[in-house]
Amino acid sequence: MEVSVLNIKGQETGKKVVLNDAIFGIEPNDHVIYLAVNQYLAAQRQGTHKSKERSEITGSTRKLIRQKGGGGARRGDIKSPVLRGGGRVFGPRPRDYWYKLNKKVKLLARKSALSYKAQQNGIVVVEDFDFAAPKTKEAINLLNNLKVSDKKVLVLLSEVKKNVYLSARNIQRVEVMTASALNTYKVMNANVLVVTENALKLIDETLNK
């Protein structure tokens, strides 16, 4: 699949790049996309939730009523989970929600996500660029020139460019990241990928295994 290379003014440069069919032309696998997205979201969870169990509640350990013969459940001290204000039974504890996913599964998921974007004509290739200074107006002009200002955009660069990042960080629905940090969730969450030429080469080198 051939894609025209644009400049930052949105004009065709006359150059074309070929999207690797081994990455952008495969039959997408929905299940591995689900697994990769689920793993990413799980890893974002702080896992700091905590509720007090009966051993952590402050209160007397004296039994309030006799254990049997009262007609109700035995309940022990005032910290019993049966009573209001008592400890919680099997409450949430701090934990890490991250779980392992095989490398080949994650690789296939990224290829599948990129294939979906290629099928939807959601990939725009631009010449490598940088801004002289961090200006939000420059980033807005770029999006307007590429006619993607009304969409959720993921800009992929070959390397960290601070001015580009700072220029785009205040724009809603726009995210800038390096191609080496690309993951399935970010691809699926965007409507359009704006990819520089060198970033495209980096994606090809990374995923063409």
Tell me what the structure shows.
- This protein has 209 residues and is an alpha/beta fold.
- The chain folds into 2 domains: 2-46 and 101-207, Ribosomal Protein L4, Chain: A; 51-91, no CATH class.
- Helices cover 33% and strands 15% of the residues.
- The chain contains 7 helices and 6 strands; from the N terminus they run ββαααβαβαβαβα.
- It has helices at residues 21-24, 30-44, 103-119, 136-145, 162-168, 184-189, 197-207, and strands spanning 2-6, 12-18, 123-126, 153-157, 174-178, 192-196.
- It has a 6-stranded mixed sheet.
- The longest helix is centred in the middle third of the chain and has 17 residues, at 103-119.
- The model has no long low-confidence stretch (mean pLDDT 93).
